[in-house]
Amino acid sequence: MNKFTERLPHLTLLLAFKTVAEQGSFTRAANLLHLSQSAVSQQVVKLEEVLGGALFVRSTRTVTLTKAGATLLSDIRGPFEQLVGAFEKCARQAAPPVLYIEAEPVMSAFWLTPRLKHFTRRFPALHIQQLLSTQRVEFPDEVELAIKWGTSDWPGFEAEYLMGLNYVPVCSPALAQAIHIPADLASQPLLHDRHYHDWESWLALYPQADLHVRTGHVVTDSNVLAQLAIEGHGVALCAIELCERAVRNGELVIPFPHLSMRHKLAYYLLTQRQKGVSEMTRQFIEWIKGEAQGH
């Protein structure tokens, strides 16, 4: 062991020095390092003893670097950043992979989540975190992909068509017993998702129903809309693709499956422009596109 190696200071001393130098204060450095001010001061003193010279000019109000201190700070900044980067890289490799997805609640609950097991079987160690948001796009830093309902125009994002939806009247089995022809819908309460537009568009396609669509219950959550229909509160206009499980379980009935309306809006895959996606996200995009084929 050579003389320099014997004098090599402990990393904690260098970290204390670097933090004080960058903060210009022992107090602020102590707060950042979760130590007492005296502990940080002692670490800096030990470093000065090892190096054999003062690193700071101390006064009652300020702390400034000596020439030797400024040189040391300049020399260790790069290696410190490399060291932190190495630790972060190692931690990422050791941690299980995480896929962050932003999706709308109804799409996640009724279409995406029931299918996710087909993707996670391919990657048993994968953890999936879903950020659920309605209408607006959150897109925090960790998210690489969002699945959103709307038109193809998403300013600031690359938008790729995923799937459209076919809307039909749905209701509880008990309510369906009184519905035999489209005109029978006029005697039942209607359920609306946010506004009357969807029922108005459907009636324009099938005027024989002769409905007064600006009546009935209005909710601002598609999950609640489906639940209202299940509980028998009225007839809702829902996407076949999103209510298939409730229909299969006998909770909902589609009285007129042939009277469907292709909605003018659709689901799109959004990624950030000029920013690539990870290999895991790329594979997820290919998988979900395959699942959506035919819709």
TrEMBL record:
<comment type="similarity">
    <text>Belongs to the LysR transcriptional regulatory family.</text>
</comment>
<keyword id="KW-0805">Transcription regulation</keyword>
<protein>
    <submittedName>
        <fullName>LysR family transcriptional regulator</fullName>
    </submittedName>
</protein>
<dbReference type="InterPro" id="IPR000847">
    <property type="entry name" value="LysR_HTH_N"/>
</dbReference>
<dbReference type="GO" id="GO:0003700">
    <property type="term" value="F:DNA-binding transcription factor activity"/>
</dbReference>
<feature type="domain" description="HTH lysR-type">
    <location>
        <begin position="9"/>
        <end position="66"/>
    </location>
</feature>
<keyword id="KW-0804">Transcription</keyword>
<dbReference type="InterPro" id="IPR036388">
    <property type="entry name" value="WH-like_DNA-bd_sf"/>
</dbReference>
<keyword id="KW-0238">DNA-binding</keyword>
<dbReference type="GO" id="GO:0043565">
    <property type="term" value="F:sequence-specific DNA binding"/>
</dbReference>
<dbReference type="GO" id="GO:0006351">
    <property type="term" value="P:DNA-templated transcription"/>
</dbReference>
<dbReference type="Pfam" id="PF03466">
    <property type="entry name" value="LysR_substrate"/>
</dbReference>
<dbReference type="InterPro" id="IPR036390">
    <property type="entry name" value="WH_DNA-bd_sf"/>
</dbReference>
<dbReference type="InterPro" id="IPR005119">
    <property type="entry name" value="LysR_subst-bd"/>
</dbReference>
<dbReference type="InterPro" id="IPR058163">
    <property type="entry name" value="LysR-type_TF_proteobact-type"/>
</dbReference>
<dbReference type="Pfam" id="PF00126">
    <property type="entry name" value="HTH_1"/>
</dbReference>
